[in-house]
């Protein structure tokens, strides 16, 4: 374990924010992690566990210890007639893990193809896309408590998954280093093609027989056509969550804005925040090297050189404007560090 000082985090966050980590250490084994705990470093410093850095906004230099997760490995740990249980180390790259499952014809993660980041961060906000969330295939995870060093296992119900939510974003925020996640995948996949453009993309590709691979390909194509590639333009995906509002409020808004984009949700109506932001005139707005993406208003972008504070201020201005225009409170999805 090698602790470095004043390390630039520029290559380690997809917003491409140039901030320094006061202390930085790569965690390549569980022993590295145990060593960090044995030296009581999390008691001495504020800790940031960093996976792919694709859902963080670094506001300024980080005056603590960054634990960059490089844990690797995956294995089948159990099997029944219907299911296979695959355990992946938390530092594995999410999309590579999804591709591995697809190559084995294990079903359940194909709709979540091409989401950036690590396996270990996937439970943090219960990643979701194209009609699936990881809670649908999640079996359990192992996490090491950063103060006690104790390893705990969290089953599905312990994680309190919700829309872009989990116990790790709330009550247990910052307490654990997730070391592995086990998924319960299907040997006889049920294909989910009803969401958004999946079916039309499958038709366009001329797919005659559905497979996890065909769905993954369709999802990847749709995502590439809509979302900016962080390798080209700094971003962290959706900056805001899609808000859920009471049905009565939706009925009123619908009268005023007949083209409003919305979906039924568990406790009300989910509004496409991208629609609200576009309608309010923010889409494509560019400030000094940063702004709102021109094709997807939910994505804030850094064209180069912006600070986390500038991007955060832009998000604050958008939130205030959406509140004033529509009476809806937008919540940020991205983790402010
Ligand atoms: P990081 O950004 O490194 O960390 C995110 C948070 O999790 C931080 O608070 C961090 O401390 C914590 N954390 C990370 N790893 C661990 C660990 N092992 N133990 C404890 N805490 C940890 N998200 C979706 O849900 N759906 C999408 O469709 C989607 N599309 C995206 C598209 C683009 C272009 C981009 C840039 C992002 C997108 N995201 C999406 C957001 C992002 O990819 C996910 O949130 C992803 O899970 C973040 O993984 P990461 O490893 O980069 O996490
Ligand atoms: N829309 C607009 N203008 C825009 C963008 C969107 O009007 O600029 C409207 C359109 O009506 C569109 C609707 O919003 O039909 C939905 O847009 P899209 O399908 O692009 O999805 P989203 O709601 O913007 C959500 C997730 C994404 C996820 C996709 C696909 C959230 C906050 N975002 O985006 O997740 O990939 O659906 O399932 O729930 C992320 O979390 O980082 C993320 C990218």
| Strand residue content | 25-35%
Count of the separate structural domains = 3
Fraction of helical residues: 10-25%
CATH architecture of the largest domain: 2-Layer Sandwich
What does this structure look like?
The chain is an alpha+beta fold and 337 residues long. The chain has 3 domains: 4-69, 2-Layer Sandwich (Uridine Diphospho-n-acetylenolpyruvylglucosamine Reductase, domain 2); 74-186, Uridine Diphospho-n-acetylenolpyruvylglucosamine Reductase, domain 3 (2-Layer Sandwich), CATH 3.30.465.10; 234-336, UDP-N-acetylenolpyruvoylglucosamine reductase, C-terminal domain (Uridine Diphospho-n-acetylenolpyruvylglucosamine Reductase, domain 1). It is built from 8 helices and 19 strands. It has helices at 30-38, 41-44, 94-103, 198-205, 212-226, 247-256, 273-279, 308-326, and strands at 4-8, 20-27, 47-50, 56-57, 62-69, 74-79, 83-89, 128-129, 132-133, 138-145, 151-155, 176-186, 234-238, 244-245, 262-265, 268-271, 290-292, 299-302, 335-336. The chain has a 5-stranded antiparallel beta sheet with strand order 6-7-12-10-11, with no helix packed on it. It has a 4-stranded mixed beta sheet with strand order 1-2-5-3. Strands 13-18-17 form a 3-stranded antiparallel beta sheet, with helices on one face. A hairpin with a 3-residue loop joins strand 6 (74-79) and strand 7. Helix 4 (198-205) packs across helix 5 (212-226). It is globular and about 60 Å long. It starts with a strand and ends with a strand. The relative contact order is 0.13. The mean pLDDT is 97. Uridine-diphosphate-2(N-acetylglucosaminyl) butyric acid is lined by residues 129-130, 196, 226, 237-238, 241-242, 261, 272, 274-275, 278, 283, 296-298, 333.
């Amino acid at each position: 374990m090698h602790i470095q000082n004043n390390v630039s985090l520029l290559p380690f966050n997809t917003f491409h924010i140039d901030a320094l980590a006061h202390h930085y250490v790569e965690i390549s084994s569980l022993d590295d992690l145990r060593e960090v705990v044995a030296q009581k470093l999390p008691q001495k410093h504020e800790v940031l566990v960093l996976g792919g850095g694709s859902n963080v906004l670094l506001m300024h230099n980080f005056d603590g210890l960054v634990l960059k997760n490089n844990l690797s490995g995956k294995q089948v740990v159990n099997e029944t007639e219907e299911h296979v249980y695959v355990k992946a180390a938390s530092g594995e790259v999410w999309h590579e893990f999804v591709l591995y499952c697809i190559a084995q014809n294990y079903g359940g993660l194909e709709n979540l193809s091409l989401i950036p980041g690590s396996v270990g961060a996937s439970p943090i906000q219960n990643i979701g896309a194209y009609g699936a969330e990881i809670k649908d295939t999640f079996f359990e995870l192992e996490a090491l408590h950063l103060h006690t060093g104790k390893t705990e296992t969290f089953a599905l119900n312990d994680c309190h998954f919700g829309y872009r939510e989990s116990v790790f974003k709330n009550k247990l925020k910052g307490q654990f280093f997730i070391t592995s996640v086990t998924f319960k995948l299907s040997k006889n996949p049920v294909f989910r093609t009803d969401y958004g453009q999946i079916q039309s993309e499958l038709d366009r590709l001329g797919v005659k027989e559905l497979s996890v691979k065909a769905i993954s390909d369709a999802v990847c194509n749709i995502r590439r056509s809509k979302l900016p590639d962080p390798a080209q333009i700094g971003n962290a995906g959706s900056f805001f969550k899609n808000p859920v509002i009471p049905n009565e409020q939706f009925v009123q808004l619908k009268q005023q804005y007949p083209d409003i984009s919305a979906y039924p949700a568990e406790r009300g109506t989910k509004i496409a925040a991208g629609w609200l932001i576009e309608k309010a005139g923010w889409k494509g707005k560019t400030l000094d090297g940063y702004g709102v993406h021109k094709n997807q208003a939910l994505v804030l972008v850094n064209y180069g050189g912006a600070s986390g504070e500038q991007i955060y201020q832009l998000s604050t201005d958008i939130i205030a404007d959406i509140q004033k225009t529509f009476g809806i409170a937008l919540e940020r999805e991205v983790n402010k560090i």
